[in-house]
């Protein structure tokens, strides 16, 4: 029995060592060219260096934030550096942990919270693409202690090992991405980013709605119902933690709703009612409000009938202009 146990332990040690070595050598790292989350964290840490200049306005959210705003234009207009800290598909629980790490590096005056992460979700029950997005966001954070602390809140016991090891997570590359594995073996080091001003923007959509999609609105109706866009307990708790952290650090908070096309969502007033109790009297720029419909034409939105619709570059330009005006009008930044 002792020999059997020793053999099992030895095998486990070998397996752990192989996995750790593969992780260290980045053998199963994903394609880096579109890893804008990793790029954003790289530049955020750069701005947090003693001569990095810091960040004055931080926008916290998911893909709606990094596709729907132009941080360089915000920075130029307000005379303050604006940075988008966002990751694809994440909810408010992950946003809290992203912010917690970010505030160990920079100290913004104003935090703009994009409202799409305020949803009804069960963080430890995420699966499919939602879980993959959570893995990616987690992997690109840098503070090991804060990642350890956040793991029990972000992942179930079954999923936690995959969050920490890209080898476990991406071992399927052995069968369908051998070329990427060979590339990683030849290039085992993390990507080298150019010395530039990167503020978290990721340009994805350049073409607006086509007539075929507009016709679907007429024949099939809106694919999104504002009544279904409710806020769950976990989002409420995470938002409370974000507010408390900002109060502790002396950071002002406002909310921003980046719009979808007005025919894309029905019962928009219900969406506003769902969000209002959690936003309270905090400044809120709701660009989904019908009063802004004339600002956003068909070429402002991604050509999709899927529920998750983003803005094009033109839409981002208009949303940015509204946000700049709102911040100035409400004097949310110190001179």
List key phrases describing it:
single chain; 335 residues; alpha/beta; two-stranded parallel ribbon; 15 helices; globular
- How large is the count of helical segments? 15
State the distance separating the first and last CA atoms: 73 Å
Largest sheet: 5 strands, parallel
Walk across the major sheet and give the strand order: 2-1-3-5-7
Number of domains: 1
Q: Mean pLDDT, nearest integer?
A: 91
The helix/strand class is alpha/beta
Question: Which percent band covers the strand fraction?
Answer: 5-15%
Helix content: 40-55%
Poorly predicted runs are none
Radius of gyration: 21 Å
Total count of strands:
7
List the helices and strands and how they pair.
Blueprint: H1 2-24, H2 36-47, E1 57-61, H3 63-68, H4 71-78, E2 82-86, H5 92-102, E3 110-114, H6 128-140, H7 144-154, H8 160-164, H9 166-169, H10 173-176, H11 178-186, H12 211-220, E4 224-225, H13 233-249, E5 252-257, E6 265-266, H14 268-279, E7 284-286, H15 313-329
Short description:
The protein is α/β, with parallel strands linked by helices. The chain is 48% helix and 8% strand.
